[in-house]
Each structure stands twice: as structure tokens, then as C-alpha cells.
Predict the 3D structure of the following.
Amino acid sequence: MNIQHVILGFLMEAPMSGYEIKQEMEESVAFFFDASFGAIYPALKRMEKEEFIEKKVIQQEGKPNKNLYIITSKGQQEFQDYMDSPLSPTLIRSDLLIRIFFGKNTGKENVVNWLEVEKEKAQSQWEYLTKIEETHPIMDPFKKMTLNYGLAEAKNRLEWIQNEIEHLTKEENGK
């Protein structure tokens, strides 16, 4: 999976501007795939060169022109090839887990602080995804599967964090 495949997936649904692609990502897949404008626009430029997409310039009064990106048949084939390819290994990259792994090199209070920060993030993710679930009760079943994964993952993180904070706090208090 790369950013081009994700963009092609969104463009399979409808033509979009770079800004709209970013918005769609933030409102749907950001908890498992995130990309900045600094990654999206260069990818769009490469994809246009590779003829996976075409750019249509929309004239707008009083605003800059809008670039609308449309997937081509070559882009559709590239996306289908990606969908038919074997899965890549799922890798988890976590600054929190790396720091905890080397936690003996810092105080337990730092680890607890990191866990508290992560707890706030997990709680925000849970609330955000719950809001999506409430505002979109009818959803494509495959998108619903990813939403359910995000909710389960946020819940699991919250439980794990709470258990680890309690464990560290008990150790600190000599219990």
C-alpha cells in the first residue's frame, strides 16, 4: 500500500480535488492511514504523469481555480492490481511503545505521563469514531468494518493503558 493506491481508491468513488481527498482521509481512514498535503499533492503530480489520473481545471469566480482529479482506465487498472495483490505485513510504528521498551532509562513518572497523554489520544479517537458511527448509521459494510476495528482498537488501548498505569502506580506505592 502506498499513498497513490489510497488516493486511487478515493477517486474510484468520485472525482475530487486534493483538498477534498485530504478531507475524505481525515473523515474516514486517518486512524489507520494518514497523509499530509505535502504527501498528497506530489503523489497527484506523479499519478498524473503516470496517466493514472487526469486533472480538470475548474474556473471559480473570486477564488483560485480548482483542480479536480479524475481516475483514468489505467488508474482503475492500477487500483485493481493493488486490490488483487498479496497483503503487505502490518507494521505498527509507535513512539510510545519504543519509549516504554527503553523505559528503564527514565523514571516511572515519565512513563505514566506518556501513558496519560496516550490515554487522552485514545479517548479522543474513541469519541471521534463513535460520533461517526452515530452520524452515519447506514454505511457501506466494508467501511463499517474499518470503523468497528478503530473502535475496538481505541477501546483496547484505553483498557491496556489503564491497566499499565495501575500497575506502575501500585509498584510506586509499594503494593
User: Anything to note?
Assistant: The chain is about 65% helix and 5% strand.
